[in-house]
Amino acid sequence: MVVAPSPILAVSGAVAGAPGSPDAAVAWHYGDPLGEQRAAIQRAAVVDRSHRFVLTITGAERLTWLHTISSQHIAALSDGQSAENLDLDLNGRVLNHFVLTELDDTVWIDTEGDRGPALLEFLRKMVFWADAKPAESEYTVLSLLGPKAAEVIAAFGVASLPGTYEAVPLPDGGFLRRMPWPTADSFDLLIPRDRLAEWWTRLTEAGAEPAGMWAFEALRVAAVRPRIGLDTDERTIPHEARWIGGVAEYGAVHLEKGCYRGQETVARVHNLGKPPRHLVLLHLDGSADERPATGDDITAGGRTVGRLGTVIDHFELGPIALALVKRTVPADTALTAGTTAAAIEPDSVPRDDEPQAGRLAVDRLRGR
């Protein structure tokens, strides 16, 4: 799917994302990419994410129906609550990652622009006799980041800030949702698409500084939050990408819910096995002549041990990347990403050395 260029690209200084990239339709930066990251961390910054695909689900059974075909526990989601969720294939591999919000008798879903139409088609095919009506929406997404975001939000008459994964209506239509990433102060505004330019102006006049997707992506990578299609491949299962957990754990896969497509793999890995790879943060050699690219092999001693995901320059950390690396690779292993030297950030390595409940039960049955 080709996403139409955002009208915000007409803003002075806006530089579009690279042609053919997932962010080609929006601004990559506005002339000061590292300064824009600082604004998002220290002050308040607004990011145009209008290339997200937004759809709605209405009908009395919208939540209970969606609960049965996705990985998160959402059957009893109350008004104003949000969650992250996954669509898996029969083998438990991740097809779609999306954020959903239940508000005013409607489930609002936003996902990657190039994957949205396929997700909508899948949902429509799965309705059968349920009272659930998926449809494309004429809404879009802006993100507001930074510790001074509250001051910007107050200018629009929002009485109190929502908690994490909570949403409140905006006085002029749409809603404000708080997210746990890419920073500690992250908010999404879902607004009518035909009012995108108006909202951009209102937010910047209220004190938010323009920031491109470069800033958003750098902070996301530093927070070790994956983006589907960049930090995942056709083999990725939820455990590898840190999506395990309910809403309270900021995850997208609840481990104690009923049957859904791909659940067998999720349960088997959780109870009996270990994921073959895990998502880690890499530091890249900034002195290299060339930067590696998403999808490049990661090697150790000439042997392929992983796949490179998002590659980005961070205002404090320098060149960094996310990568799916074999779980057995020690954190201090000297790596090469493409042709560039790389090192794993030790603090980013997940701890999965505890024995699983299913494995312990099998051992007891065998008298071990």
TrEMBL record:
Entry protein name: Glycine cleavage system protein T
GO annotation terms (biological process): iron-sulfur cluster assembly
Basic and acidic residues composition-biased segments: 348-368
CAF17 C-terminal domain segment(s): 279-347
Region (Disordered) residue spans: 343-368
Keyword tags: Transit peptide
Keyword Transit peptide included in the entry's annotation: yes
Domain (GCVT N-terminal): residue spans on this chain: 36-241
Top-rank taxon: Bacteria
UniProt key word Transit peptide: yes
PANTHER family named in the record: TRANSFERASE CAF17, MITOCHONDRIAL-RELATED (PTHR22602)
